[in-house]
Write a structure and sequence with these properties.
The chain is mainly alpha-helical. The N and C termini lie far apart (73 Å). The chain is flat.
């Protein structure tokens, strides 16, 4: 497709008028909350999942748990500005407890159940 000089000039003018809105920073939405208010974290490591398109990508055979653990660790430490997982998780739970009127004390030796909740299904006969 050929472009005339007039069409080219018009496209430059249109691009110039859009340029300011395209490259301006976005205004934040909502109210920043969290241990470090407004902070967002993201993790990516191509070595976490090795899947060739056959089978299910989410099966253990295709996932490298140590790589996934490192990604989660980097994410929670980055999210909370803490140096290790224990401090990071502690700050997350303390923030949650403080903002939900549950106090900030953590129970020493308490275990955290990370399994998905399962609902019992009872059938009436």
């Amino acid at each position: 497709m050929e472009m005339t000089r007039r069409q080219f000039a018009l496209s430059l003018a249109a691009a110039a008028s859009l340029r300011s809105s395209l490259f301006e920073p976005l205004s934040p939405l909502g109210v920043p909350r969290g241990v470090v208010p407004g902070r967002v974290t993201w993790a990516h490591d191509p070595a976490a999942v090795t899947w060739d398109g056959t089978g299910s990508w989410w099966t253990d055979a295709h996932n490298d748990q140590s790589v996934i653990d490192r990604m989660v660790s980097r994410s929670i430490c980055g999210l909370t500005n803490q140096k290790n997982d224990a401090q990071a998780w502690g700050s997350i739970f303390q923030y949650f407890n403080r903002t939900h009127s549950r106090g900030i004390a953590l129970m020493v030796g308490a275990k955290l159940d990370t399994r998905p909740a399962r609902r019992s299904r009872s059938r009436r006969t």
